[in-house]
Task: inverse folding
C-alpha cells in the first residue's frame, strides 16, 4: 500500500467499529464533570507559539523537542497544541471569564500533538479529556478536582486505580529546593545526559522527569521537594489530605511526582493503573496558581487535570470491561421494484422522524443480497416490500432473532415497530 494511503506515523484512525467506545466514554466524562459544575469549552487546535514556549516552560521536553511548530502565511509562528491548559487559560483571559462568578469551571476534550517516539499509550496525535478550575485557592478545591478525576474513571467502569499525590511547593520554597538539587546533581554531572546537564542551572527539577534510565536512577536518590515546603505550602497540603480523608478517597503520598510542565505549584497528583505496562499514568494534574498572571491576566489561583482517552480505553480493555454497543438497526425494509423503493424511502423517512434507525436499499441489491446485508448490520426486524404488499397495504414484519413473522399494516408501521420492540423486551425479561 502506498504511504500516502496510510495514516502518518504516530496517528490512528478511529473507525466505526471503535468510535462508539469513544462516544460512550467522552459522553460519560462530560456528563460526570457536569455534576461538579464543569461546562464544556472548545479552543483552537493551534495557538501562537508563545502561548506554550512562555508558559509551559522552555526547559521541558514538550517545548524543547516535541512541539509541531510552523510559520503561517502571515509570517506568524503557530503551534499545534501539545496540551490544553495554556490555551484554555488564554481563552479565559481573552474573554474575561473570571469577571463572572468564581470559580470558573470548564472541561474539554480533543486532540493534542507531540512529536515523540510512538508507543503503546503514547502517540503523536493523542486525545485528552480535562478540566480547569479557575478562582479557587482552598485545599477543598484541590480535593474536589481530585475527587472528580477519581469519579470520572469509576463512571466509565475502571477499577484498580491508585491515587498518588504530592506537593511541589510555591516559588518561595522551591528556590531552596532548587539549591539542594543543584548540589546533589553536580556530583553526578559526568553521568547525566547532555539535556539534563543543560537543565542543571536553569531548572534542576526537570532532571527528575528525564526518561533516560541512567538519569532516572540518579534522580531516584535526589532530595524530595516535600522536605522543603514552607509553612503555608505544608498547611495547604495537610488541608488537601484532610479533605480527601473526609470524603474517603484513598491516596498515597509519592514525593517523586513533579509533573512535566513548569506551571504547576503546590498540589500535584496522578491516577495510576497497573494494567497497561510502562505508560501507567491515566490522569495527571495539579495546581498552577501563577499561570494566569504569567500570561498577562490578574493573579488568580487555578488547578486542573487531563487524562488520555487512548490510555483510558487501554485500561478498560485490559480489565475486560465491555462498553455499551451502538443502537442496532431497528428495521431494514427490502424493496422489490421501483414503486416499492419509493414507498420504502417514505417509510424510512417517517420512522427516522420518530427516533427509529430505519434503513433501505440504496445501492441496487437483489432481495437475497439485501437480506444478507440486513444480517450483517444486525437489523432487529426486516420487512420485504413488493407489488403485492403495496396493493394490500400489508406486509410481514420478521424478527431476525427468532425468525417469527407478523403481518402488519403499512399505514401503522410506526406503532407496529414500537409494539414489537416492547414485546421483545417483555420476552427478554421473562
Result:
Amino acid at each position: 500500500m502506498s504511504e500516502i494511503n496510510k495514516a502518518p506515523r504516530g496517528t490512528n484512525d478511529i473507525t466505526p467499529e471503535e468510535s462508539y467506545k469513544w462516544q460512550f466514554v467522552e459522553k460519560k466524562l462530560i456528563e460526570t464533570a457536569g455534576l461538579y459544575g464543569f461546562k464544556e469549552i472548545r479552543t483552537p487546535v493551534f495557538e501562537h507559539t508563545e502561548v506554550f514556549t512562555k508558559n509551559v516552560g522552555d526547559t521541558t521536553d514538550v517545548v524543547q523537542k516535541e512541539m509541531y511548530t510552523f510559520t503561517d502565511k502571515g509570517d506568524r509562528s503557530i503551534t499545534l497544541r501539545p496540551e490544553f491548559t495554556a490555551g484554555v487559560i488564554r481563552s479565559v483571559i481573552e474573554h474575561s471569564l473570571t469577571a463572572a462568578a468564581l470559580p470558573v469551571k470548564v472541561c474539554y476534550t480533543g486532540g493534542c500533538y507531540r512529536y515523540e517516539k510512538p508507543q503503546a499509550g503514547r502517540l503523536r496525535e493523542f486525545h485528552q479529556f480535562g478540566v480547569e478550575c479557575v478562582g479557587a485557592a482552598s485545599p477543598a478545591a484541590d480535593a474536589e478536582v481530585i475527587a472528580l478525576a477519581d469519579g470520572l474513571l469509576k463512571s466509565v467502569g475502571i477499577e484498580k486505580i491508585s491515587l498518588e499525590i504530592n506537593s511541589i511547593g510555591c516559588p518561595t520554597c522551591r528556590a531552596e529546593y532548587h539549591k539542594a538539587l543543584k548540589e546533589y546533581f553536580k556530583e553526578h554531572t559526568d553521568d547525566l545526559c547532555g539535556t539534563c546537564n543543560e537543565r542543571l542551572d536553569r531548572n534542576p527539577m526537570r532532571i527528575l522527569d528525564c526518561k533516560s534510565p541512567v538519569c532516572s536512577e540518579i534522580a531516584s536518590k535526589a532530595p524530595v521537594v516535600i522536605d522543603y515546603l514552607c509553612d503555608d505550602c505544608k498547611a495547604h497540603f495537610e488541608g488537601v489530605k484532610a479533605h480527601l480523608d473526609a470524603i474517603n478517597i484513598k491516596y498515597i503520598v509519592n514525593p517523586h511526582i513533579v509533573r512535566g510542565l513548569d506551571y504547576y505549584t503546590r498540589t500535584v497528583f496522578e491516577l495510576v493503573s497497573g494494567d497497561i505496562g510502562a505508560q501507567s499514568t491515566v490522569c495527571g494534574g495539579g495546581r498552577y496558581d501563577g499561570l494566569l498572571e504569567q500570561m498577562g491576566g490578574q493573579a488568580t489561583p487555578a488547578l486542573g487535570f487531563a487524562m488520555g482517552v487512548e490510555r483510558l480505553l487501554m485500561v478498560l480493555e485490559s480489565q475486560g470491561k465491555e462498553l455499551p454497543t451502538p443502537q442496532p438497526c431497528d428495521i431494514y425494509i427490502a424493496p422489490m421494484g421501483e414503486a416499492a423503493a419509493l414507498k420504502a424511502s417514505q417509510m424510512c423517512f417517517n420512522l427516522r422522524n420518530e427516533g427509529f434507525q430505519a434503513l433501505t436499499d440504496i445501492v441496487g441489491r437483489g432481495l437475497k443480497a439485501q437480506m444478507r446485508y440486513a444480517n450483517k448490520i444486525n437489523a432487529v426486524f426486516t420487512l420485504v416490500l413488493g407489488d403485492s404488499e403495496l396493493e394490500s397495504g400489508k406486509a410481514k414484519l420478521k424478527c431476525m432473532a427468532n425468525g417469527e413473522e407478523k403481518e402488519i399494516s403499512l399505514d401503522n408501521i410506526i406503532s407496529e415497530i414500537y409494539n414489537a420492540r416492547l414485546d421483545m423486551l417483555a420476552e427478554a425479561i421473562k
Remarks:
- The first strand starts at residue 39 and ends at 40.
- The chain has a mean pLDDT of 91.
